[in-house]
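TL;DR need structure tokens for one chain.
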Amino acid sequence: MRVDPQAPLHQLADECQKVVSSLEKRSEKREAPQKRTTQEYLRLAATLIKRSFYTPGGLSEVLQATEYSSTFYKRLAAVQYTLLQHHEMLMARLAEKTDAIQSRHLTHQLNLHLSRLTQLHELQKTGFILTRRKRRSKRQALRGLPANWRHDLYLRAGHGKYSLPILVASLTGCRPAELQHGVAVCREIDPVTGEDFIAFCIRGAKVKSGQGQPWRIIKYSVSDPHPLVREICKFAYCSDDVPVQEVKIESAVNFTVEVRRLASNLWPQHRQSVTAYCFRHQWAADIKAFTDGDSVSRGLGHASAKTRRTYGTAGQGGKDGLTPLAIVATNPVRAFTTDPRRQSAPDSIEP
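>> reply
TL;DR here they are.
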């Protein structure tokens, strides 16, 4: 769509508004992004738009310059959010009184804005056009690791600031972002059996309407002989006066970097990087090896049974895997009807 640069400002604004209305109509069913996401979108879009000035194909070429469809659609969402914010700013300026110089400057900005909006609209219709590169699952990184790799990694961390987060991630499969929130480690006694147990209380990191578990609790018996459980008992019972302790990290990124560094020192010949998400895959594999699938979903913080398919396999769990006493979550897990292994309705809790 080309508009005469000398066209009146309001004609340009109307053309922009038509494209904006079309963009908003295509995405009206989506939830508004969270604050942290919008900040990331603004940073990403600024980089992409700046790059488009020096790219022959402009914004379209910049957004398509990736082998991963997920990256393309993330870029698309980031640019759309940023352009819609910019549109509101331009419309507000249009409502103000302007002199001739300001009017020429605003005309130039509206022409640029219209060009970007048009390219974005075309990209939404055409979608990702390059050959999609098959995404390598992080669970493949577990292949070739020793059965007790989590315990080895914990010991390698020594008494550093990431040793306890590594232990908690191993025992719960929590996300790095959830460790950043803080995971409560509690000593408790079963009122019926009188048995002591350790409970991890985790606040979900990816929670929207109908997506994710706001809270989940994973419990282990104090008498569990697994070496990881023995280590967390030492921490939980280090003080008789403190039944609840919090394990927390400052940066999810730094935690992943440290896990990768420790793993590369331990297994320099391992072909794939061992990251913090490998704890989630190994934990899911352990749970799949001994109990029903919905327990996996609850423990990973998923609201849908479908999502667990991408995490660890029962064969990766092994006979020495973790066996929690109980795994409960805020909401029931939505059934994935084509999954023949689907079990009965899960437990739920009130946070």
